[in-house]
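Weekly modeling sync, notes
Attendees: S.R. (lead), two postdocs, one rotation student

Agenda item 3: backlog of single-chain predictions. S.R. asked that every request posted to the team notebook include the full sequence so nobody has to chase files. The rotation student volunteered to paste the first one in as an example of the format we agreed on. Action items at the bottom.

Example entry:
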Amino acid sequence: MSDESNGTKNKVIRIGSRDSTLAMKQTYTVRDLLANQNPELVFEITTMKTKGDKILDKALSKIGSKSLFTKELEMALEDGSVDIVVHSLKDLPTTLPEGMVIGAVCEREDPRDVAVMHPSYKSETLASLPSGSVIGTSSLRREAQLKRKYPHLKFESVRGNLNTRLAKLDKGDKYTALILAAAGVIRMGWEERITQALEKDSCMYAVGQGALAVECRENDQDILDLLSHIVHKPTTMATVAERAFMFTLEGGCSAPVGVSTKVEDGVVTVEGGVWSLDGSEEIKGILSSKDNESLDSDNSSEGTPAKQPRVSPAFCGIVPAPGELSKIKQSYELGITLAKSLLEKGAKRILEEAKAANAIKPPIAPQASVTVKAS
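Predicted structure, as returned to the notebook:
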């Protein structure tokens, strides 16, 4: 956070973002939330390409990094080039670089996956597509689940930003349909392209999918205070549970792990699953926080919300909002307990086999490309 010469009313908050159209829309959403709360501040956006944006000829699981869409942004955060960074939460590893935290998780968009059909098949569903139809997805999680549900379909990798992937679908004859995150399609204003929303019995979604995360430096109390006003508490509770689930499983882009979470009346219910790459094996479980109350819910040690500093402990990177420490602890424990139950059922072997099958080459050193855009 920096000051202009004419006083505190012109403090500048520098926001880092990937430069894709969707990433910018997400960044504008966070910027506008902050601006509505802090009209006296000026917001400046700095964009850059990440490794995941640059390498488009390989499946995500084969590139060789846990921070494909985040590392360059976090480097800018570390060196002070930006004050905060906006991410799709599903892109953030469950362990963040030292000194970095997620200061806010914003309200979740529809977290489900959706099918978008080629114009020639717009009246079809995945179940009714002809045998051998090619479905485009770069996600092992989606592919494993859909192979199990729709064995008559074929799956091939498709990379690129959302615009590029849809162009490949519409202008070519290779793909019959694409599987995409509903949130991205909706944020782009393309809801009419959605042919079929995939419910949890077909395809559980990725950990954190649909939620936006705002990352900052752990010791930047002013920024943490600023971000506390845009935290969406139910989304935070859900995604902490999901990230704890993933962390305990030691999953990632090379392992098919999915979740389906709901928060009702302060109760978090998480359903999670692990699949073999070919979809032949599946281990699932479900757990609710009302059935997992091993933690003390007493908030007395947290202090009052007005006095509680927003500092670590962080839960898979997420710093609890003032007054929310106990609820976040419970959500975190919920995810851990669910993951352990799946591991006891044999999930460890499935995950190890999936990771071995997707052995990756040493990572390529990232090179950041930076552009400053007007607020």
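Discussion: group reviewed the output briefly. The radius of gyration is 21 Å.
Action items: rotation student to repeat for the remaining queue; S.R. to check formatting next week.
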